[in-house]
Amino acid sequence: MEARSEVVDGVARLTMCSGKVNAISLELIQAMTAELAEIRKLADSGKIHAVVLASERERFFSPGFHLQKLMGCGPDGIVDFADKYTDLCLALLQLPVYSVCEIGGHAIAGGMILALSCDERIGADCADARLGLNEVGIGIPLPRAAIELARARLGARAFEATMLAKSYTPREALQVGFLDRLVHPAALRAAVDERIAEYREVAGKAFRLTKPDFQRPLIESFAAARKELPAAFRRMTNDHELQGQLMAAMLRRQQEKEAR
């Protein structure tokens, strides 16, 4: 099982449970997309009023793409992967009910973009956790769709957060804008529930009709930028300098893993 969902008291909880760290593979994307389609039906019919995106792994939300699998897909496979991943992010953005991401540990690159696709992010104050967008630093040009998402969520800090490819502690991530709230790890689930309770007071058809209009500028810019994905990812697979940078980053990651 890559992902699962459950509905309790009008709240749908979509949980990633893929491998040791929820590295994003095509299988995980497909599983999340299928679960989210069912959640969307419940949202449209008014049977749920909130969605939580979470991880079964205590220390990992997601470190981003499963690079080993991705690089073995070939150019056409990488473009297909990017398309399906972007559709997943867009589906999260288009939810007509309140969505909140529960982040208990590391959330990097593609994992953080998933988190940014939710309305809000509540994180655990874990000193060893890292959050951020590191794509540029490892040889992956950040697609414009992701840049538009970062602009919308981070405001003036978006340039630093994307172009410096920094990883932040949860407390730093709160200051930059990756997180909206930060709580003690033991209080994370309760903090998410408390925030949902605030939105329960206004949940209803008026909320479901208003939220799409509130999100419209972001969704339209995200969807327009999505059309550039095939060319962007083909460029990445055909550029020797980018390939060298990415392979070097993968080697460093493997060495760090073996040293632990």
List keywords for this structure.
four-stranded mixed β-sheet, globular, 260 residues, 10 strands
Kindly describe this structure:
Helices cover 55% and strands 16% of the residues. Helix 1 runs parallel beside helix 3 and helix 3 runs antiparallel to helix 10. The strands form 2 sheets. The protein has a 6-stranded mixed beta sheet, sandwiched between helices. Strands 4-6-8-9 form a 4-stranded mixed beta sheet. The chain has helices at 26-44, 67-71, 74-93, 110-116, 135-138, 144-154, 158-163, 170-176, 188-200, 205-226, 229-238, 240-259, and strands at 3-8, 11-16, 50-55, 60-62, 98-103, 106-108, 120-124, 131-132, 167-168, 181-183. The chain is of the alpha/beta class.
Beta-strand segment tally: 10
CATH homologous superfamily designation: 2-enoyl-CoA Hydratase, Chain A, domain 1
- Find the structural class using helix and strand composition: alpha/beta
Strand content of the residues, in percent? 15-25%
Distance between the termini: 27 Å
Summarize the structure.
With 260 residues, the chain is an alpha/beta fold. It is built from 12 helices and 10 strands.
